Amino acid sequence: MTRNSSNLYLGPSGEDGANKQVDSLTSDPSGKNQVSPAFNLDLRYTLGDSGTQFYLGNLIQDTVRLDFSQQLGVRQRLGQSGIVSVSYVFSGLPSKVWQDPYAIGTDRSDTRRDINGVQVGWQNIMGSNFSADYSYRDISVDSENSGQFLLNNIDPILGRTLTQQEVNMLKRSGKSHTSKVSYFYAIDQRQSLIPEFRYVDNSLDGDAMSNTQFGGLLSYFWRSEDSQYNIVSNLYLGKTDYSDANPVFGQKTDSTDFAANVVLFKNNIFDVKKLSAYAGVAYGEINSDVNFFNTTLTNFTTGLLYRF
Question: Which residues lie within the region annotated Disordered (predicted)?
Answer without folding.
Answer: 1-33
